[in-house]
Amino acid sequence: MNIAGDDRGWLSPEFLASVFGYCFNQLKVQKVLGQADSANVHGIQFHTHLGAKLEAVIKDAARLGDLHIYSIARNDCRFLGEKYVKRLSA
């Protein structure tokens, strides 16, 4: 999954619950993958803040260094929890 925004207020827990709900519940995937260039500190922090785990590092595959591949498994996705689902229903 690739994601980008132009200001700080666009990414909400409700948005993430919708996106992950679609991936896991509609598409029935077992993992959602993300990637970040090893020089992109904010990208790495973003993935880890979501709860993603580093799956692999592909050496010299990114424009500025290595390519980090992150994953969130369905069972590890906190955005599928009742707390976030209730917000979507309200």
Biggest sheet statistics? 3 strands, antiparallel
- Unreliable segments (pLDDT under 50, ≥5 consecutive)? none
Q: Which structural category do the helix and sheet elements fall into? A: alpha+beta
Per CATH, which architecture of the domain at 29-89?
A: 3-Layer(aba) Sandwich
In the CATH hierarchy, what is the class of the domain at 29-89?
Alpha Beta
CATH H-level name of the domain at 29-89... which superfamily?
Gcn5-related N-acetyltransferase (GNAT)
Strand order of the largest sheet: 1-3-2
Number of strands: 3
SSE sequence, one letter per element: HEHEEH
Helix percent reads 25-40%
Q: Counting H and I runs of at least 4 residues, what is the number of helices? A: 3
**Could you tell me the radius of gyration in angstroms?**
14 Å
Q: What gross morphology would you assign?
A: globular
Distance between the termini: 27 Å
Average predicted confidence as pLDDT: 89
Strand content: 25-35%
User: At the third CATH level, what is the topology name of the domain at 29-89?
Assistant: Aminopeptidase
